[in-house]
Amino acid sequence: MSEQTPSNRPPRPADVLVEPFFKFASLEASGGILLLGFAVVALIWANSPLGQSYVDLWHVQVTMGGGWAVISKDLLHWVNDGLMAVFFLLVGLELKRELLMGELASPRKAALPLFAAVGGMLVPAGLYLVLNRGGVGEAGWGIPMATDIAFALAVLAALGSRAPLALKIFLTALAIVDDLGAILVIALFYSGELSGTALGVAAMATIFLFLLNKAGFRRFLPYGVIGFILWVAVLKSGVHATVAGVALAFTIPANTEEGEHHSPLEGLEHALHPWVAYLILPIFALANAGVAFGGGGDGGGAITNGILLGLVAGKPVGVLLFSFLAIRVGMAELPAGVTWFHILGVGFLAGIGFTMSLFIAGLAFPTAELLNASKIGILGASGTAAVVGTLILLRARSSEPEPEPEPAGD
Fold it and tell me: 342 in a domain, yes or no?
């Protein structure tokens, strides 16, 4: 009998379950590196002699559509309201998959990242308000609640085998729950005056999308057409337009039918990942990370310090404390090979807020002075959290026993 080689050996059940995560993590990690590069370009550009051209570019007015659906915004808002809706569509697809078949599919599996994420949102927001409650920066309390999954996974990828697979899965699940929290915060606290007519159109579009799902439509085209109508309606309703991306995601079929290699949800998720990682998020970083250093206006120091305190101190304390509580009450347990030192390191990596933090900052602060102060805090805190988290994880040791050497043959 011929021996099977790795290339023709049937895949093991464990491989089938873990392979999608490896693809997801590798794409997020490489996208995080690109994201960092574009953020650096934005910073250099904004602080160079050509800095005014950076500001002027993103304030170019662009008008599209006509009649009720006419939309006139500057380039910055087209990026943040338009392109980022696609990013949030991807976030919604990832969240739905995790809830149905991933780390959030059962209460026992979901408990640890869920508790960690809640702690990593509440404690930073509370610390930020300690410095800004009642001041001009109070509206920014949602900024330090965020975690940038692309940057965080890029750091873990750089650590290689020093970061156990279970730790990478834990961080991914934590960041996805964190994204859900950010979506709820944006929808509930960072929306403008509401339009009843537009909300009605959005509600009808959402109902129609669910009816498409129930009727068994498997192709994305009808979902995309109705989803675009939903996006326009949400944009004009006063609720932030990116919420439309999440609503659309939850209507995409997640089941696999006979003859299909993957579900429509998985197919759309795989199709969107490269566009989001290599185009949308880098453009977002280029448009939003360019802060001209110097001067933050009244209250700017409290905003910067509040974000630094929230992301660098609040995140690890919240993640560690709430993880300990989840395990102490018997609702969760540490993943195999993961120690409390690992959890602390991940807590710091969760303090890399960047994308979501910049996004919420743009909603919280309409003035350039306060927005710049928040960007300085976000960039400083994210960089500090990345360095400290990396140093901690470099010193961490797996809780798994070292394998004993096999005895030599006779």
Answer: yes
Q: CA 283 to CA 83: how far, in whole Å? A: 9
State the pLDDT at residue 108. Answer: 81
- pTM above the 0.90 mark? no
**Would you say 350 and 316 are in contact if contact means Cβ atoms under 8 Å apart?**
yes
Of the ranges 14-28, 58-72, 301-315, which one carries the lowest mean pLDDT score? 14-28
Residue 225 confidence (pLDDT): 95
Nearest to 102 by CA among 18, 218, 11: 18
Count Cβ neighbours within 10 Å for each residue of 244-265 and write b for 16 or more, e otherwise.
bbbbbbbbbbbeeeeeeeebbb
pLDDT tens digits along 188-232 = 888 777 788 889 999 999 999 999 999 989 999 999 999 999 999
* Residue 298: inside a domain: yes
Q: What does the alpha-carbon distance between residue 368 and residue 278 come to, in Å, rounded to a whole number?
A: 28
**Distance of alpha carbon 59 from alpha carbon 76, whole angstroms:** 7
Say how far apart CA 21 and CA 27 lie, in whole Å. Answer: 10
199 inside domain: no
Domain that holds residue 371: 20-191+240-395
Q: Residue 308 is encoded by which pair of tokens? A: 């630094």
SS3 category, 254: coil
> pLDDT-based confidence at 148, cuts 50/70/90?
confident
The count of domains in the chain is: 1
Q: Is residue 163 part of a domain?
A: yes
The H-assigned helical ranges of 309-397 are: 315-328, 340-349, 354-364, 368-395
Rounded CA-CA distance 121/390 in Å is 21
> Residue 71 forms beta bridges with which residues?
64
> Most distant CA pair in the chain: distance in Å?
86
Closest CA to 146 of 121, 164, 172, 176: 121
State the DSSP string of 97-152. HHHHHSTTSSHHHHHHHHHHHHHHHHHHHHHHHHHHTTSTTGGGGGGGG---HHHH
218 three-state secondary structure:
coil
Q: Give 62's strand partners.
A: 73
Distance, C-alpha 210 to centroid of its chain: 25
List 63's β-bridge partners, or say none: 72
Write the CATH number for 304. 1.20.1530.10
